[in-house]
Design brief:
Elements: E1 2-6, E2 14-17, E3 27-36, H1 39-46, E4 56-57, E5 61-69, E6 81-83, E7 89-91, E8 96-98
Antiparallel strand pairs: 1-2, 1-4, 3-5, 3-8, 5-6, 7-8
């Protein structure tokens, strides 16, 4: 999958292919239809969060379809339309949703 990556603090961003994530027991994988960078992502690009762990994948506001769920996921199933909000834990560039 493609991701917007910050390689290091104040090093700009690049778009790269990254490995597809696999869900943990309580996670769901989302096929992203639309994604957006928010003001926090833009601040990250400008270097306002120097203690972040790099490389960092941006874009936590997404709309998509559930592709795969872990064995403990009860609230989502393959084919569900979803939007990701900040109350969810998002890892690997917003493509894995934690229940």
């Amino acid at each position: 999958m493609k991701a917007v990556i910050l390689p290091a603090h104040k090093q700009g961003y690049r778009i790269e292919e990254v490995p597809d994530p696999k869900p943990g027991k309580d996670e769901a994988i989302i096929k992203v239809n639309k994604a957006a960078l928010c003001y926090r992502d833009l601040l990250q690009i400008k270097g306002f969060y120097p203690r972040s762990k790099y490389p960092l994948i941006l874009g936590h506001e997404v709309v998509g379809t559930v592709e795969e769920v872990g064995e403990d996921v009860k609230d989502f199933k393959k084919g569900d339309s979803v939007k990701v909000e900040k109350k969810f834990t998002v890892r690997i560039g917003l493509y894995t949703l934690k229940n």
